[in-house]
Amino acid sequence: MSSKAIGKSTKVVYPPGCKEINEELSKDELVKRLKLLARAFQDMSQDENAQFSGLALMLASEFFTDHQNKDVRLLVACCIADVFRVFAPEAPFNDNDQLKEIFLFLIKQLRGLEDPESPSFKRYFYLLENLAWVKSFNICIELEDNQEIFRSLFKLMFSIVSDKHSNKVKNFMLDMMGPLISESDSVSPELLDTILINVVEPQKSQNKCAYNLAKDLLRRTSNAIEPYIQAFFNNTLMLGKTSKSDVSNHLYDLIYELNQISPNVLLAVLPQLEFKLKSNEEPERKNVTKLLAKMFSEPESNLASQNKPLWICFLGRFNDISISVRTICVQYAQYFFLHHPELTKEILEQLKVRQHDQEETVRVEVVNCILNVAKKDFDCLSMEMFAFIKERTRDKKFKIRRDALLGLGQMYKHIMSQEPREEHNVAKVAWIRDKVFHAYYQQSNDDRLLVERIFNIYLVPYQILVQERMQRLLQLYCQLDENAVKAMREMFKHRSNARLSTISLLEGYDLADQPNAPAILPRLTALARSLPEQQKPQEQLKKFNLILRDDRRMRNLLKMIISPECTCKKAEEIVKEVLRKLGFNSGGPNHLYNMVKSLLERIAPVMIDTEAIDVLVKHIDDVITGKTSLEGGIDNTPEKGVNLLLGLSQAFPHYFRTADVFERFLSFLKQDDDVVCGVTLQILNHTGARIQTMHPNIYTDMVPVLVSIAKMGNPKQTKHAIRCISTICAQNKASVLGQIFEHVKKNLHPDSANYINSIVALGHIAQLCPEEFGGEMKNIVSKIIVKDLMMHDRTSGPETDESWYADHLVTEETQAKIQALKLLVRWLKGLKNNSFNSGTLSTLRLLYTVIIHDGDLMENGNINKPELARLRLQAGCCMLKLAEEPGYAEMVTSEQFLALALLIIDSCYNVRLKFAAKLHKGLLLMKLPLEYMSIFSLGANDPLKERRVQLKQFLHINVQKRREYLKHPGLRKTTQLMTTILPDYVLPYTIHLLAHDPDLKTFDNRDALKNIKECLYFIMEPLIGRAEDYNYAFLRKMIENIKQTKDAMGPDNENLNKKLYAVCDVALGIMLSKTNITLKDCTFEPQLPSKLFTTMDKDYSNTKSYLPKDFNFDAPKRKGIQALIDGPSKSNSAKLYTTTEIIVESPAPVINRNPKSPRTKREKKVTEKKTDKGKENIKKDDADLLTEDEESRNDSITSESEESRNSSPEIQVQKSRKTKQTKTASASSSETTNNNNVKAGTKQTKMDDFSSAGASSKPSKSLVNGSTKDTKGGKKTKTVNTSDSESSNLSGSTRKRQASSDEETPVKRTRRGEETDKSRTAAKTQVVKNVSPELSGSDSESGPSTRGSSRKRAVSPPPQKSLPPKKSRVTRKTVRDSSESSEILPSPSSDILDSSPVKSDTRRSRSTPTNTVTKKNTRYVRKAKTNGTSDGEDANTPETDSQSSLSPRKIAILKQAMETGDMDSQPTIKRQTRGRKK
Asked: For the chain, which end, N or C, has fewer CB atoms within 10 Å of the first or last residue's CB respectively?
């Protein structure tokens, strides 16, 4: 309707002072009149509104609302807004359509707010203020299309709001929009979408002001809008309804934003997320997990405490099957540590599991999580978080190890660079320096280069000034633990090797023009071994070789960087120039560039140069003299300082050049500290070769000091002083050493204060100058060293039952003998290329005699056990040292080698430990012949798990070292080389070694062969464990060839050859039992050592099997080193048996004459039960328990028979009934016993050798378990059991994977079974679980109390007090098959049975066959270890019922119970045993 029509139909009244407005007015006039009208409406109150309704309707006509002039429209809008104010609460507009058009018109006019700089902005602001203050838009709530109007208004407001608007404008916008939500009856999805779209991306980032406006609006209307938001999420999240809204694609972002804006609106939505967390769809779980992680971890978020079920469900996502879900959880864990310390414990529990995640990306995120926390807030880190990174430094993936170590290095540098340092933070990172260097023990060059890089950049930054750098280096070294110090020295060594390889390569280029120019390829190969494998150094070095060959400048740069004159600063410049010449390809990986960079990092002296050495030596000198001290109060700082110089002198001797350095070294030699003096001597030995020419004055002052130390110093100082003289006095060392030689000859008597020192000096002089002093040395060795020293025992050590004690307790005479043995070896090593070598064989015989006599050369019995252990250990080490020389290795006989091999299962723990370490070192350096690796096979019998694990590691390392050596390109693999290097060739030596096991009496000895099988498993597992290294055809051919030969030690001895063939069959069986057989071509014929085997007979084919029938080859499922401790798997054809329990009340423990070592037994297993308290187990023992004489046995029978007859029938029935169980858990009981006993030998004091000093014995040891036979007076006396006196074929072996005990009881005897009254009385006590260890012993324990009694390889348990009477539970196996062997009783007291027809005798030997009761071919028979009998009875004749101590009634009841099989309900038989009266 036009304004004219409205004017005609309705009376229009104008406010005073206002003129009429109509369509005929010009634009300017119309604007002028509208301004007056707007001013009038602005000043008008609500009381004067009735007469102006016509004017209001006219202003709302289309002419004014659609006017082309914006000023007209704006003024009209302002007037209409005032109309709504004046006419409130009832507007003059009654038509709903007209109202809609009016409000849409007003919304369009509000767009003018977009430009606050506009001249009309004030009027637009007035319009906004008026509409907001009056709440004019609330009128639209009653309209049907109100949501369309609201949506238009909201869109406009969100689109025009900007940073230019003041807070007042924004507040009016909110005042206008807020009531439309809070007072409206509903909020349409479209309107809700209009609001919510502004709080999610991309609108959130694109229009920050709209986001803030929407955020404020939601906060104002949170209570009113909550139901609509809830309905929205119900439809989209739970019901899965699709929506046309763009916000439906950002549901989880929206939830997060709403939680940030107003958490109250999500109270009903969050519980729904718990179902989404458990969704089967991975993307859905991933999105919800990410959302909740952000919400839970937000600062000041209380969501975890407010919604506990949802929090617990979220924690479960750390274990989600999806890698991406687990990764998200770990990534957000850092925010929990930073913002919510109260949740740290729960998150740490999850990270503890995730750090071991199978997926490496998850483990990487665990490391990054902790490192990010350290960067943002170091105080948040706990030691448990550090432990995660510490463990990841040993991850199997290099990437994870790299990230962990680099992060730790950065952390350490950050804390240590702070000024001032915070002590609690320094303490937190103190372990990092050790952990970084521990990573150097990794075999990969990538790890080692990484450690070197961290050392140069973070631990001791190379860019700081040299004074501070050396001070930090010394501080770092003095704070490292022992293993880290070794790693640092190894690092210096590897860097030196890389430098030497580079020098060799450059020398090859210089000699390339000569006729016999050396090949470059081997030198490149040697250099490649010091570079990371990931960079493919072989290929890259070939490219670098072409560059070096053609680029002289590049070669000169490398020569400068490795020259002694190169400084750290110059080296840094050269490195930059070399890398610049190579160029860096930013478009992709430049492998050549990275390889050369790694090489330069190793060879460039960026840390150590001549100036740095001068500063370091001066600093250490100040520490020694007390002028300065290090931080932290470090102990032994002078000693650690000179040890640092020692490591540097070994790797970088060319930097020790200046006179000031050697003058300070001379002052070190004059110090009272023996350690400083000794280490300084070693430093001079490495660096003093040019002192005589470069610093003659210092040389003149130094030589007399060295001579004085060699004469009067301690043995170590003497040793190093003589070596130092040999290095420094290269031109006149014979004359200087001659002075010392003449001096020490005068002190070669036990009364001299320098006696030991003189022996040491003679040995080193003889080695360094064999030609000058060879003649005199021969007389000294024969007359003084051997006859006067080695063959006489002038003193005896302190009495002790220990098998080893500390060095300071060793007597001077024993120390002299140890040094004498070393002297013999040094003398022979000096004579190896000389004519004075006639004493080699006699020296080997002397060493052999010391070993077989347990260290007592002359068998005088005056030396205690700890010193005997040291002597035989030293003899063994000396034999190994001689064997490293090719000429002497051939002189070692087979008998001497067998005796030497026994030291690896010596009764003394320290002997085994030190001998194995010396053997491993010689093999690893490839100095010892391959034959000596076979000694490790006997390590399968070591009683301690940790020792077996270490020996298996030694084997793996040696095998791998030799295989890697054979892979070197350019190596000529001749037959001679292969037989000496290829680890597979250790098998013939091992077979020969095990074939001469004294326990292997006959070739078909099943027990001995079982133990040999385990020894073969032990050494063959590294050979055949990996399919790529396992050459089945070669090994089989080698073993078959052995069967075509004969034993060179006895070619005509049929039994000896059969034993050899039986061991071969065992090895073949082990190979066939392995499943990963890969057939490979055998390119060359296996060669057998002629020293051990005769020439192969090719015309004869030995296909016969020499193993017992049904010999079991079920190999244990072994995988890795740790699996070596697994026992052999049970045979599938195990015999059926039943068990019978007998509970015996015993007043005191029975002496266990032959205790078992804590290892798996060789005999058939028997069931065992724990005692009432389950503290100990009774172990199955072999048939070595000493028996009483016939009289004591009969006394016991009589007393027990009388007791049986005097008891009432009811009691007898009760005693005869017994609970019957099938297949008791014998294995678990045995394993518990083994585990308990293994601990007995883990410490030095628990590996005691309990034999006391006395008459000598000459033991013949077993190769597999070290069992011995006693000899007396130089003649072998066969030790037999009393029960075996009429039998033959004595086994003589306990067949245990152990080293036997040396414990002895002070009871004398002439034969086994003949004891004193004291031992006879002790044998009558009954076995309980807690067997008294001080009474427990082996065969030799109750024999003659001799110093050199049999060195069995078992470790006895620690002494315990005798226990009061206890109930002892014993179990027996009853074999159903009467044709098979009978059961083996588990303890010496298991023959005390009242519930069986077996005679119960407390003193009966373990080998006594018991009475039998025939019932369906079922026997109760004791299995004897030997084939003999006890107490003079025939072994094949079972005892009759008349011989039993059981009454006929008791036997009848027992028969009835066995026939009915109803033994389960029988009461336990108890019996009070009595000791025999004297």
From this structure: C
